[in-house]
Amino acid sequence: MAHQQKIFILIPAFNEATAVKSVIRACKAEGFPNILIVDDGSSDGTGEAAREEGVTVVQHAINRGKGAAVKTGFEACKLLQADIVVTLDADGQHDASDIKNMLKPIQEGYDITLGQRTFKLGVMPLAKIAANHIANIFTFLLSGLSIHDSQCGFRAYSRTALKKLETTADNFALESEIIRSIREQNLRFAEVPIRTIYTSYSTKKKNAQNFWNGLKTLYGLISK
To answer: What is the full DSSP assignment across 98-141?
Structure first.
């Protein structure tokens, strides 16, 4: 069934020239040639690096935030008539070999697949475990849905989900907004365990979802 569907891999990227090529190659090695990079106003040549890999690149003139990049990618994928869109991070944190597992629920009739990371010491840094548990609690209070990993950017969306999702956030709050929209639009979702690759590069990025970005995310959600 998968080969009959038009599947796009959507990768929002901001100053990821160091890692984006390897992420693109990993996706292609798993059999997914339709890759869309949204360069969110990078200053390090991220868009140029991605183009060298022969993929489609959409660029923001200025940095607008991860949420804005994902939304731009959704609109582009609709124009490209994608049947399924898979989002993953550009820093190499997600394992491309998990893409096929993320697709299975969509191909079985679900609207959205949510990646579920392992919250264990030795697998995830302690600060990230704490931040994610807090985010899960706030997401539950705001959406009414109990999600094991509300902040994971590794997700898969059906064409129906892309049409129905209603979001406004331009920052990391988009991840939680999508959970709220799942509830409001009565979309069917599944959670799938995924592997996560933490490196010194991915954990030290200034634009990563750290403590201060987490506070901004919570404020953005509460103020809506």
So the answer is: GHHHHHHHHHTT-SEEEEE----TTTS-HHHHHHHHHHHHHHHH
User: Which of 55, 5, 81 lies closest to 13, judged by CA?
Assistant: 55
> What's the one-letter identity of residue 90?
A
Residues 6+ apart with CB under 8 A from 187: 111, 112, 160, 161, 164, 165, 181
Which of the pair, 33 or 209, is modelled with greater confidence?
Answer: 33
Architecture of domain 2-222: Alpha-Beta Complex (3.90)
Q: Write out pLDDT tens, residues 48-63.
A: 999 999 999 999 999 9
What is the distance between the alpha carbons of residues 193 and 117, in angstroms, rounded to a whole number? 6
Q: What are phi and psi of 133, to 5 degrees?
A: -65, -40
Q: Considering only CA atoms, which of 181, 123, 103, 113 is closest in space to residue 149?
A: 113
Domain boundaries of the chain, sorted by first residue: 2-222
Among 191, 151, 156, 158, smallest CA distance to 175 is for 151
Please give the Cα distance from 5 to 171 (Å, whole number): 30
Cα separation, 3 vs 79, in Å, equals 20
Give the whole-angstrom CA distance, residue 184 versus residue 192.
22
